[in-house]
Write a structure and sequence with these properties.
InterPro entries: ABC_trans_aux (IPR005586). Keywords: Lipoprotein, Signal. The structure is a single chain. By secondary structure, this protein is an alpha/beta fold. It has one domain (46-192): ABC-type transport auxiliary lipoprotein component (Rossmann fold, 3-Layer(aba) Sandwich), CATH 3.40.50. Helices cover 29% and strands 29% of the residues. The protein has four helices and seven strands. The chain has helices spanning 2-15, 60-63, 88-102, 169-192; strands at residues 50-53, 66-72, 75-83, 106-108, 119-131, 136-146, 154-163. Strands 1, 2, 3, 4, 5, 6 and 7 form a seven-stranded mixed beta sheet that branches. Helix 3 packs across helix 4. It starts with a helix and ends with a helix.
Length: 194
């Protein structure tokens, strides 16, 4: 019994030193849509065009939770204490869905689109971070649209740049949210055309 107590007592100070991951930042970043469907608004794919929006692919540098900073043309760092609540590609896809839906299109999930001849929007989120040289938040999205009933793919690159005073966690979230909303608005206009 004494031996067991000694082992437990010896392990207690060690337990305070063990860490199973980096210390989380005080808060997590997310995106806020400036255009979204009204609460309680009904949408029906029989009365309006529908679209399925896929989560975009991303390069590894922006696939995780950290906010990248292009320090030089060939080096990337990350903003200290800045971390997304979930991967940026998912945040951007949700913001894009809200923006497109606010423009009158019915946004369907992949499962819902099986029985509905909807358009499909896919793409790659190529940049979603800060540039230290230009002091800008940059969002670049390469969209690929297949319209309902068509076999061809339309491609278009969208980009927004928003100035940031400092490269830090406080400035990163709002600037990237503003840039993402600008890109989403331009994509929604493009998708709604024709």
């Amino acid at each position: 019994m004494k031996t067991k107590l000694l082992i437990v007592a010896a392990a207690l100070p060690l337990a305070a030193c063990i860490s199973f991951g980096a210390k989380p930042p005080p808060s997590l970043l997310t995106l806020e849509a400036t255009a979204a469907p009204a609460v309680g608004a009904d949408q029906n794919s029989a009365k309006a065009r529908s679209i399925t929006i896929q989560v975009p692919s991303t390069p590894t540098a922006i696939a995780g939770a950290r906010v990248p900073v292009q320090a030089t043309p060939t080096t990337i760092a990350y903003v200290k204490d800045a971390q997304w609540a979930e991967p940026p590609a998912r945040l951007f896809a949700r913001l894009l869905s809200d923006t497109v839906s606010a423009r009158g299109l019915v946004v369907l999930s992949t499962v819902q689109s099986i029985g509905d001849p909807s358009s499909t929007l896919a793409g790659e989120l190529r940049r979603f971070g800060l540039d230290a040289t230009s002091r800008e938040a940059i969002v670049t999205y390469d969209a690929a649209l297949t319209r309902a009933g068509k076999d061809t793919v339309e491609k278009h690159r969208f980009e927004a740049r928003v100035p940031v005073a400092t490269i830090d966690a406080t400035s990163a979230g709002p600037a990237l949210s503003q840039a993402a909303n600008q890109v989403a608005g331009e994509v929604a206009t493009w998708v709604a055309a024709n």
